[in-house]
Fold each of these.
Amino acid sequence: MLKGLHVIEPGNLTVQDIDEICSLAEQIIVDPVAFNDVCRGKILATLFFEPSTRTRLSFEAAMLRLGGSVLGFADASYSSSTKGETLADTIRTVSSYVDVIAMRNPKEGSALVASQYSAVPVINAGDGGHHHPTQTLTDLLTIRSLKGGFEGHTIGFCGDLKFGRTVHSLCKAMSRYKNNKFVFINPPELSIPRYITEQVLKPAGIETREVLRLEEVIGDLDILYMTRVQAERFFNEQDYIRLKDSYILDKEKMKLAKDSMIVLHPLPRVNEISPSVDQDPRAAYFKQVKYGMYARMALIAKLTGAL
Ligand code: NCD
C-alpha cells in the first residue's frame, strides 16, 4: 500500500513497491492518454531550495499529465525561509494546501524532518549529498526497460561517489537484487561513503571493487553509471578544480565496452561524457530523462491514492 507514504530514501519502498511503480509506469508509457485524468483535483507542491532542471520539471510535467495541478517555488530566495521561517513551519503550511510535496534541500536529513511535520506524503527530490529516491526510480525503470530486470548485472559507478546522492540511492536499491556486482571507479578522495559500504553493501553481501581507471574495467560492465563531480558540495575550490575532469567518457573508451552495455547519467553532465558518445546506441541518458517523468507519474498516482 503506497498511499500516504513518505519517500525519503529507497529503503522506504519495498521491492514489491518498486515492481508496482515500474509496472504502472510501463502501462502509462503504452497508453498515456488513459491516465490524463487520474489526479484531477489534486495538487503537487514542488519546493526547491536548490537548483534543478529535470527533477522539478519532470515532477511538474508528471502531475500535469495526470490531470492535477502544481504550485511551489524553484528559488527559495522568494520564500519565507529568507525571513527565518523554519522548514517545519514551511512544511506545516504547504501541507495544508496540497496533496503531495516534492522537496529538494541542500541539507542532508531535511526531507526526513519535513516528513515529520507534513500532513501529506513528502517525496525527497534530493537532500544534500544523501539520497535521491526518485532518480533511483528513474534509473530502475530505465534498467528494467533496457536490460530486462534488476538481477545479475555488473554495474560501474564512476565519478563523484562521495557526494553523488544518486549513486548512494541506486546502490541501496540495487543491493536488494540477486547477483549484482558493483565496481566503483573514483579518485580516492571521492570514494563511496563508509555508511553505504558498512550499512548497505556488506550486509547485503554485494561483491564490490574500487579502481582508479575506467579503461581497466569498462569491458566488464553491463551498466556504466557516470556522474558529475558535485562542485557545490566541495569545501575547497582547489580540490574541485583538481578532481573535476578525473573521468571523461569518450568514443575511444566506448570501444572497450560490451555492445550490450548501457551508459546512464542522472544529468546534468559537465565534461564527464563527451558529446561524441551521444550518438552511440549504448548511450541511454536521454532515454533515462523520459523514463523519469513516467516513473514520477506512477509514484504520484500511487502516493496520492489516485490509483
Ligand atoms: C542529480 C542530482 O541533483 O543529484 N541530478 C538530477 O536530479 N537529475 C545529479 C547531479 O546534480 O549531478
Amino acid sequence: MKLLNYIRGTMPRPGLALNDVVGLDLLAAQPSLPDNLHVLLPDLAPVRAIHQEFAPRASEIAARWEAGEAPTLPFFDLRHARLLTPVILPSKIIAVGLNYRDHAEEQHKKLPERPLLFSKAPSCLQAPGMPIELTAELTKVDAEAELAVVIGKPGRGITPGQAADHIAGYTCMNDVSDRDAQYTDKQFFRGKSLDTGGPCGPWLVTPDELPPLAKGLAITCHWNDTLMQSSNTDQLIFPVDELISYISRNMTLLPGDIITTGTPGGVGVFRDPPVFLKPGDTVTVTIEGIGSLVNPVKLRES
Ligand code: ZN
C-alpha cells in the first residue's frame, strides 16, 4: 500500500494511492477511521481491508476519468492532488551521516564503526512539490537523496530481529543541508534544520511491497536533468534493522518517527568545483519501488 496525506479543502486527509492516477480518500471510504494517518500507523489492518476492497477497481476508474468522467469521492485524482508529507509532525527525525560506502569514500573517510546520528527539527519537513526556500544569505545549500523509514509500532530496546515489526513503511527524503552552518557550527543541527529543508514523500510504501528491510533498491538524485547521485540501498553500511536497534537502545521510537538513513556519493559540496542549489532548480529524489519526490528551489519572498 501507498499511504499518503493530502489537502482537501483546507484540511489534511489520509489517503491511499491505488495506482499512478487514482487516489482513495480513507475517510470517505470509511468514516469511522481516525482522520490522522499518524494514529493509524501502529495497526494498518483496517486500512489494508479498505485497500483490498477498493484497489481492484482502480484501473477501471482511471479509464472512466480518461473518457471524461469527473472524479467523485471516495476517489480523487492523484495527478492534481496537493500531497503533504506522509507524516505531518513526527516526534523526531533522526538522520545518519556517512552511511553509504561510496559517500564515505568520497570524503576520504574511514568507514564508521557505529552509526553517526544527528537530528533534523521536525519543523523542516516540506511536502512533495513544494519549494525548498533559499534566502540571499543561504548560498551553500545542498541536497541529499535518502531512504527514510517510518516507525509504526512504538518500542525501545528493539533487537535487529524485531526491527521489521516496528516499521510502518518507507519513503523518500531529501536531507537538504546548509553546508555553511553544517561546517561552521560544531554540530549539524542548524545546518540540517532549515525551514523547508526536509522534503519527504510522496507517500509511505508499506514493507510488503518492497524487499526485506528495503535492501537492493536503486536510489538517485537529479538536479534538473543532471544525475548527481546514483547508488543502491545495498551500499548502506548500517542497514535499517541495525539502525532501529542502535537508536532504540537510548530512546523510545514512536509511531511516525522518521529515520533517514544517509546519502550516497555525489552531493554538491564534494564536487570539484562544489555546486549548490540555486533558485529555479528542481531536485528529484527517486527510489526504486517507492517513487519520486520532486521539489523546486525558490528564493523566499519575505
Ligand atoms: Zn543526510
Amino acid sequence: MYCFQIRFKSVVASLLMSGIFASQAMAQSFDSCVNGLRQTAMNQGISQNTFDKAFKGIEPDPEVLKSFDYQPEFRIPIWDYVAGLVDDERVADGRAMMKQWSKILDQAEQQYGVDKNVIVAVWGVESNFGRIQGKRELIRSLATLVCANKRQTFFRGELMATLKILQSGDIAQEFLVGSWAGAFGQTQFMPSTYQRLAVDFDGDGRRDIVQSVPDALGSTANYLHRAGWAEGEPWGYEVKLPENYNGPSGRTTKQSLAQWKSLGIKRIEPVNSVMKKQMPDSAQAALILPSGAKGPAFLVFRNFNAIYSYNAAESYALSIAHLSDRIQGGSTFTTAWPTDDAGTSRAERREIQQRLVDRGFDIGDVDGLIGAKTRTAISEFQTSVGLPVDGRAGQRVLRALRTAGSKSTGQ
Ligand code: CA
C-alpha cells in the first residue's frame, strides 16, 4: 500500500549505484546519519537498547535506492493490471479463505461493519493471502532511504514507527521484513499505519499482522472502517453509458444517483450479479471510466473511496472491488476492455514464461511476474514471428507461442 510519484532523480543515488557507496566517506556518512537517528529515537522515547539492537550490523542497501529511483518505462494497461490481480486462481483462493476463516471474518464484519468479501479481497491483492509479504529488512531499507535523503521526513517517521514496534515487542525484528519502501505483513501496512490501525484480533496480546491471519484480517477491517466504510452499502457497480456519452466523469466528480440516471446511465444487471442493496436516488456517486467511454464504466459510492484510501490508485481499488464481487459469485465485467489483445491470468503468464523457456529464452524464474527479462524475451519472440512488438504478456503472444510449439529458435 505504498505508492507515490517519483519526483526527482538525485545525484546521490547515481553515485551510490556506481559503487562509491562502499567508500569510506559514504560509510562514515551513513554512520553519522545513524548517530543522528539515534538521537531522534531517544527523543521519541525509544531506548538505547532497542535502537542498538535494531541497528546491529545494519548497512545501507543499494537495491532499495534503485527501487526508489526506478521509473517503469511503460504503464501497465488497466486490462493487464486487472487480469493479473483478479484471475480464477485468486477467486478460488479467496473463496477457500472465506471458508477457512469464516468465523474470524464474521467477527470482523460484525465488529467493524465492513464487508468480509472486501476484507478478503484486500488480503488477496496485498499479499496473495499472506504468501507474498516482501523480504527486505525494514530497519535497513528505511535507514537507507533516510540517510540518502529520500523523502527524509516521511521515511524517518516510518523508521521511528518501526523502532516503536520493536520496542513494544509486538513483532520481532526477524519478521519486520517487507517491500523496499517499508510496507510489511499480510496487510502490507506502513509502520505508521500499523501503529495507528493494527489490532490484536486473536486476543494473544500482540498485534501481529505478519504471522497472525486474524490480526491481519481484523486490522484490514479496522482500516476500512476508519477510512469511512458505510456498513451494508455496495462499493458500486458496472453501468451502461448512453451512446456517445461525453458528460462528467472522474472519481471526485460526485452527484446524486438521480442525476446520473437523468443522463441515461443505467446499472448493468449481468448474469450471476451479486445481490447489492439498492442505493437511494439521493446517494452521491461518481462515474469512473478506467479506459475511457468505450470501456467498462462504473458508478461508485463512498465505499469505493474507502478502498481507494488503502492505496491511492483507481485501478487498485477497482481490482479489490471486482475481486470481492467475483468471490461471491459475481461475473466478470459485461463491457469488454477496449483492446484487441486482452490481458492474461497469472496461470497464463506462467505458461507464456514456460513456453519462452522451452524455446531457449532466459526469463529468470517462471513465477507469473512479468519483469524486464520476460518483456525482452517476449519482444524478441514477437519479432521472430512477425507480431507487433510491445513486450506485453497478452493473449496474442500466448496464442502465438501455443501455435509455434516448443521448437527452438536457436536462442
Ligand atoms: Ca494477536
